[in-house]
Amino acid sequence: MRNPKKYCEIWKLQKSFPSPKGPAIVVKDFDLFLRDGEFVSLIGHSGCGKSTVLSILAGLTTKTAGSIILADKEVRGAGPDRGVVFQAPCLLPWMSAFDNVMIGVDQVFPSAPRAQRRQIAEHYLELVGLADSVHKMPAELSQGMRQRVGIARAFALSPKMLLLDEPFGMLDSLTRLELQQVLLEVWRERKITALMVTHDVDEALFLSDRIAMMTSGPGANVGDILEVPFARPRDRKAVLEHPDYYRLREHLIGFLEGQDHRKPKPVAAEEPLAISAAVLSPA
Amino acid sequence: MKYDVKKMMMNGLVFPAVGIGAVIGIWAILSQSAAPDLPSPLRIWQESKLYVLEPFTYRGELDQGIGLFTWLSLKMVLKGYALALLIGTPTGFILGSSKLFTKMFDPIFQILRPVSPLAWYPLGLVLFSQARNNTSELAALFTIAMCAMWPTVINTAVGVRAIPQDYLNVARVLKLSPTKRLFKILVPAALPYMFTGYRLSLGLSWLVIVAIEMLSGRPGVGGFLWQEYSSLIYPHIILCIITIGVVGFVLDRLMSVVEANVNHILNLPALIQRGLAAIFARRQLEVSHAVS
Ligand SMILES: Nc1ncnc2c1ncn2[C@@H]1O[C@H](COP(=O)(O)OP(=O)(O)O)[C@@H](O)[C@H]1O
Ligand SMILES: [Mg+2]
Asked: Which tops the pLDDT comparison, A267 or A37?
C-alpha cells in the first residue's frame, strides 16, 4: 500500500567526499519525507550540501549511506522519472528549444505516435510562454527564456518527481519573480511532487507547501521544517499581505542566522535576502 | 562604410601586392648577383608559361599542365585524407572517452606521431606488395593516413574530454542509449575541436603527398618537381614550389571557412525546420483567408 504521506522518503542519507585529511562528511543523517503532490523547498547556507542532496536524488552523485525511496521503489542511478532543472539551464546549444524538449519526450514516450510526442513538447513550451520561440536556438534566447525551456523540458517528461537546484539563481530579480509565477502555473496543472533548493526565503515562501531548513555542515541535515499555510492557487500580493507572512519569514531568517555562528561574517548570506526583500516589499 | 572598404582593399590587396613585389625584386637582384644558379623571375615565367597557360594539356605522363598535376595530387590527397579522418575520428573518440585506452595506447601514439612520411612509405610498399598495379597508390594512401591522422585523433580526444559535465548529465538523466548519446551529445559538442583537427590533417596530407610523389616518381606536383630536378630544368622547381604553396594555402582557407561555420552546419536541420514551419504557417493563413 502506498502511503500518501511518504511518496518520497529520504532515510539517514549520508555523503562524504574523499579529502586529503580523510573523508569529509558533508551530509549526515538527512531525513525528509515528501507527500504525493507536495512542493517542498530546501533552504540553507551556501556550501551546506543542498546541491549534494539534490544531485543524489537525481542519481548524478552516489550516496555514501542511507536510502531513498520514490513511489515505493528504491532510487538507483539517474533516470527520466525525475525531472531535473539545474541552476544553469544547460540546454544543448546545437538544438532548438523544441528539440531540447523533444529529446526527452522521445525517451519517455518512445511508443507514442510522433504527432502526439510533438504535441506534448509544444504544450509545455506554450505553458511556459514560449509558443512564439519554439524553433529558436538557445543562443537566440535570453537567460530567462532558456530557463523556461529548462522547466518545460523537466515537466514534459511527466516525471514522478521534480528536482530544482536554485532554478532562478542566475536570473535578475524581475525575471526571477516572473519565472516563479510561470513555475507555479505549470506545476498547478499536474502537481508533480517537487523538491527545490533555494537560498531565497521569499521564493521558498511563495512556492512551497513546506520548507525544510538545513543546518550548516559538516554533517548537515534537516534542522527544522516550516509548514506554509497560504492557500493555492497563490497570488503574490495575497501571500505578501497574509498576516502570517512576516512571522514565517522571521522564523526562516532566524534559523539561518542561528546556523551562522561558525562563520565569522554573515554578509554573504544576508545580501540576497536584502535584495529580494526590497523588491518584494509592498509599496 | 566606405572607409572600411578602402581599408580592406589596402589590407587585402595593396599591402600583399607590395610584399610580393618586394620579394620578386630581391629575387631578381639575387639571381643577377650573389646566386647565379637561381633562375631569375623572368626566366621562371618564360620557361613555365606553357604549363601555367595551358594548365590542363596532357603531353605525357610527366609532362602535363600544372593544373592536371595538381589535380592528380589532390585526388590522392582526398583519398588519403578521407582514410585519415575515417581512422582518426573514432580513434580520437575512444581516446577521449576511455582512460584505460589512453593509458594503453597514448605512449604508442606519441611515438608514431613524429615518424616522417619517408619512413612510412617503404613499409606501405612492403605491406601492399601483393596488389600488383596498385602497390604504390595503396602505399601512398597508407602513408598519408599514418601521418595525417594525428591532429584529428588528438583534437577529437581533447574535444571529447572538454565536453561540459552538464551535457553529459542531460544524457544520464534522460538515459540516452549509447548511440543517441554519441550522435546527439558527444559528436555535436566535440565538433568544433574535430574540425580544427580536420583542418590540420588536411594540411599534413598535402605535405605528405608531395613528399611521396618525389620519393616514388608518381605523376603529380611532387613527381614533376623531382623529374625536372633530375632533368636540370630548375625554373620548374620554383613553379612547383609556388603551386604547392598556393594549393596548401587555399586548402587551409577553405577548411577555415568550414571550421568557422561549424555551428551553422549543426543548426542547418533546425533552420530548415524553422523555414518550413514559417512557410507552412503562411500557407495556413492563405487557406484560412481563402475560406473566409
Ligand atoms: N565533488 C566534490 N568533491 C569534494 N567536495 C565536494 C564535491 N561536491 C561538493 N563538495 C563539498 O560539499 C559541500 C556542499 O556542497 P554543495 O552541495 O554544492 O552546497 P550547496 O549547494 O548547499 O551550496 C561543499 O563544502 C563542497 O565543497
Ligand atoms: Mg548549490
From this structure: A37
Least confident of A39-48, A266-275, B39-48: A266-275
Mean pLDDT to the nearest integer, A6-23: 93
A82 interaction partners in chain B (CB closer than 8 Å): 173
DSSP 3-state of B191: helix
pLDDT in tens, B154-208: 999 999 999 999 999 999 999 999 999 999 999 999 999 999 999 999 999 999 9
What DSSP designation does A46 have? T
CA dist., res. B161 & res. B157, Å (int): 6
CATH number of A1-71+161-183+191-263: 3.40.50.300
What is residue B49's predicted lDDT score, i.e. its pLDDT? 86
Going from N- to C-terminal start, the domains of chain B cover: 1-36, 39-285
Domain boundaries defined on chain A: 1-71+161-183+191-263, 93-159
More reliable by pLDDT, B94 or A279: B94
Is the distance from the beta carbon of residue A17 to the nearest atom of ligand 1 less than 6 Å?
Answer: yes
| DSSP symbols for B131-172 | STTTHHHHHHHHHHHHHHHHHHHHHHHHHHHTS-HHHHHHHH
Predicted confidence (pLDDT) per residue in B23-60, tens digit = 999 999 998 888 888 888 888 898 888 888 888 888 88
Q: Which of A42, A52, A165 most suits a substitution to test ligand 1, by most atoms within 8 Å of the C-beta?
A: A52
3-state secondary structure of A226: strand
Q: At what angle do helices B187-216 and B117-127 cross, to 10 degrees?
A: 80
User: To the nearest whole angstrom, how far is the Cα of A221 from the nearest Cα of chain B?
Assistant: 25
Which pTM value belongs to this model? Answer: 0.81
Of B178, B184, B182, B118, nearest to B147 by C-alpha is B118
Note whether B267 contacts A82, CB cutoff 8 Å.
no
Of B65, B75, B249, B213, the residue nearest B139 (C-alpha): B213
Q: What is the 3-state secondary structure (H, E, C) of B161-185?
A: HCCCHHHHHHHHHCCCCHHHHHHHH
Average pLDDT, chain B: 89
Tell me if A268 CB under 6 Å of ligand 1: no
- In order of B12, B29, B41, B93, the CA distances from B15 in angstroms are 7, 21, 20, 43
Percent of chain B residues topping a pLDDT of 90: 59
Residues with C-beta atoms within 5 A of ion ligand 2? A 51
Read off the C-alpha cell for B279.
512557410
* Ligand 1 atom closest to residue A53's alpha carbon, by position in its atom list: 17
Q: Does B110 touch chain A (CB under 8 A)?
A: no
Residue B290 has pLDDT above 80, yes or no: no
Question: Per the structure block, which three cell numbers stand in for B161?
Answer: 574530454
CATH classification for the domain delimited by B39-285, as one of 3.40.50.2300, 3.40.50.10610, 1.10.3720.10, 2.60.40.3500? 1.10.3720.10
